[in-house]
Amino acid sequence: MSKLEITSQERSALRASAHPLRVVVQIGDRGLTEPVLKEIETHLAAHQLIKIRVNGADRDEREAMLQTICDTLSCAPVHHLGKTLIVYRPDAAAVKAEAEARNATRAIRKPNEPYTPKKQAATGASLSRKGEIAKRAAQKTERLENAAPKARRAQAADTPAHRIPRRAGSALSLRAGARRSSTKR
Question: Do residues 77 and 143 share a domain?
């Protein structure tokens, strides 16, 4: 298993909350054995934050024990002060319940539904895209109907749209006439 990583702010808060705790597991002269790991596992499952006392070992051995405990039991090392080790592992069920409680008040909507403001949602009203879809369909049919009169307007290119007479000898009028004869915008 992998070691759990926590932030320095979490570590500081856990260290403060572990201060009044008593030592629940003691590692004796035999060192870190399988029964000791099982005992640490049961206490982590019950309390999430525990203190462990290591008797008869030097600092390097205690450091190695702390790493072994954290690696095998998937917990985070909070503090190592003298012969006292503090480890933490959150309860998976409690974390899941907390996340569900946080999300319980969130509005759940389908991906294809539009966003409804809180005040409207509180009254029970919801926005619908049916009106928007109908409006788009009406605009599309209107554009298709308007395409035919544009073709008729292109044929009636005798009078300009702006009602200003063109001068016959102007280069602009020639260019505009050439453009107008092909298609009108």
Answer: no
64-91 tens-digit pLDDT: 999 999 999 999 999 999 999 999 999 8
Q: Token pair of 184, please?
A: 């009108």
Q: Which two tokens stand for residue 102?
A: 């946080």
How many domains, in total, are found in the chain?
2
Instruction: Kindly report the average pLDDT of the chain as a whole number.
Output: 81
Separation CA 49–CA 130 (nearest Å): 55
Which residue, 91, 115, 140, sits at the end of a domain? 91
Residue 174 domain-assigned?
Answer: yes
Note the helical H segments in 48-162: 59-73, 92-103, 118-123, 130-155
3-state DSSP: the chain helix, strand, coil percent, rounded to 5? 50, 10, 35
List strand residue ranges (DSSP E) for the chain, in order: 23-27, 49-54, 76-81, 84-88
Same domain, 14 and 77: yes
